[in-house]
Design a protein that fits this description.
heterodimer, A: alpha/beta, Beta Polymerase, domain 2, five-stranded mixed β-sheet, two-stranded parallel ribbon, B: 413 residues, alpha+beta, Cytochrome-c3 Hydrogenase, chain B, five-stranded antiparallel β-sheet, 15 helices, 15% strand, globular
Chain lengths: 177, 413
Amino acid sequence: MEPIDGDGILNLFKTRMGGAILSSHVDTYVNGVRKKKLQTVWVRVPRESLREAVSLVLEMQAPAHIAVASGSDLGNDIEVLYHFQVFWGFKRESTVSVTIGTTCPKSDPHLPTISDLVPGALITEREKQEFLGIIIDGIPDPRRLFLVDNIPEGKHPWRKDEKGVQDMVRNVHEGGD
Amino acid sequence: MAGKSYTLPIGPVHPALKEPTMFKLTVEGEIVTAVDVQPGINHRGIEFIGMRRNPLQVLHLAERICGICSIVHQYSFALASEKAAGITEIPERAQYIRTIMAELERVHSHLLWAGVAAHELGFDTLLHWTWQLREWVQDVLEIISGNRVNYAMYIQGGVRRDISPEVIQKLKVMIADYRAGIDQLCKAFTDDRVFRHRTMGVGVLTYKDAVETCAVGPTTRGSGVHKDVRIDQPFGGYADLDLDYCLPEKMGYENNGDTYAKTLVRLQEVVQSLDIIEFCLDNMPPGPIRWESNMTKLLQHMKKAEGEALGLNEAPRGEMIHYVKLNAGDENVSIWKVRASTYNNILAWTKMLPGCQIADVSIIAAAVDPCIGCMDRVTVVDQDTGKEKLFSNEDFYRASIRKTRAYQRKVSP
């Protein structure tokens, strides 16, 4: 597919996925003396539509380039954002960052894997499992990645609830050894 | 017949990465058949620490993620947090100074890498020569910022220090000297038959593997992949430049993704960086260097801000990305995700290492540009007897040197 700009990508998402999109927007920034445009697209979908959204990214360009997935604890839900770069290598300034966000409730913290669609996503999926306490269904390699063995099972550093590691933190200003 | 296979763990301490890495190699005789990378032995939880600090504090924390490419983390965090806070009018002069600093760092990082690569192969004279060259750029960085590492130059909405006309003169002298020095350096690397023997066809990352594993930076450009954030999504001063991808084919070599190809990419990028710095110095726009010079006002603005953004940047090792989310009323950075370049190159290692000899492990691992010279020690586990043999970094290094000497004997008349 020939490169299109951020607004075009958002339109494509809207026409193809329509009602499945929960929220979306395009951020535009200008850079340099020449005031060149740089766009990032943000699309949020329910987890059932995650793989469909990733397939749409693959339709734009395959193999897709995933930069990383980031995640946050929203209280009752956990949000995971997959940051893709589409249209790399076509011509200068053709690449657009496309972020696909999805959530899962803490009571049922499951997300489907995308590493069969994008092999490069494996490392970041392993990281999300251990840091957010979610389960990626179908992940080919579910082992821990960064967390060391002395962090107990069921503790996840980015969680802001009782599964977080706040109680394990030793603050120097509070004294103690 | 399948030979007896051993597991060869390498690591775990490895300061060139954000997370020290452990390689578990499966070897059959001299040949590596599989590799498993296990990072995180000394994960410092910097993102966790950062989510308990305000954006101005995190600027300096971000810089301390890495001692070599410290500025790119600050750059990415500044870009992400200022966008998240709605600060989009960055003074043009500040954008140019940011670009100059990032490129100076690329020069010193690539020269450091070239020295490490030479050392891994046993060319210690070349190592000292390369690092002597690197001293000048570090001096220039010190003249501009006061520090050889951790420059504390960037802030949300601009930079903290200006570059004065006197410093511009010094920079120009450095660039002229470097052009001559780099020419000689290129010759030293490309003319040496032993260096070519040790790197050509070693640690090959094919184009297909490079794009599928989402590898970044010179690692992927060595395979002919057109990926460079400075060109694909130009930010700051790069938007005014007409850059081209540095590929091995420009130096008359094929884009085959071996260690030699990656070396050529880095050598070209040093020259490209000098061109970029020169362009920025010649075309530096006048004007202010900050969006808001009062730190208290800036912090107040960040506190009230609500939003999320990405900070993308081309680090010496490849694409770098920070994700920042700010919530109104939350003084701290609500969510901060750091993704350093080597993170995406972990999977590339698993494609590059199988098939190589143990003596080549150090140069192949170094080709991605974490310095494997920092590798701590290695345990060899005999799977049949369960016996462990301790391999030190020294032993690894010696194996590499022996291979170089053997080649030198072979090619010398």
